[in-house]
Amino acid sequence: MSVQDLAKRLPYKFVNHGLLTQALTHRSFSAQNNERLEYLGDGALNFIIANQLYQRFPGLDEGDLSRLRAQLVKEASISELALSLNVGDALKLGEGELKSAGWRRPSILADALEAIIGAVYLDGGFAAAEGLVLHLYNDKLSTIDPKVIDKDAKSLLQERLQGRKVAVPEYAVVHTGGEAHAQVFIVECFIQKLDIRTVGEGTSRRIAEQQAAQLALLALDKLGFGKSYSA
Question: CA dihedral defined by 60, 61, 66, 67, rounded to 10 degrees?
């Protein structure tokens, strides 16, 4: 996928397309890379998420707000969003990073998405950057539960299913690829009773399982299988 293809997938139209290209350029490819944009986007993302949590949860204290924000802006969360946009396919990487499948590395994906946020801020201002972040984080902000701060997706999925007397999901590695030092795991999560199958991908089995579990949670939400559901 080209930079232009990615641009079409974003809910923002760049005036200066060079900013998006720079946001997708890793330091291994060029001295004109995305590190400064990543710094800017990181700051914007943290503020936008902090403001959203402050407005949505007026009863939470500073400590819980900080933990919720950390949960939303951690590398795993950001790289998951980058994967949903196929950011890795548009990255400009040096030869070494290409050989080690750097386009799949969570840290590189997360940095690139933050750089995109920074690029949108420079190109269109704060409102544009906020619009992008809210678009990307719509599902996460709508479903985050302050009572389960810091619980991982697999734990949340298991608790929700057990609370409705549904058997815990089965996880299975369906494919592994890449070189020995940069393997990629594809894991399926299967909830038999509800006939839900989701697939996660990551640089470790654990990361892939967590991504599959997160997608299963979203599938449960779409089915209305929430706290008020009675099996």
Answer: -60
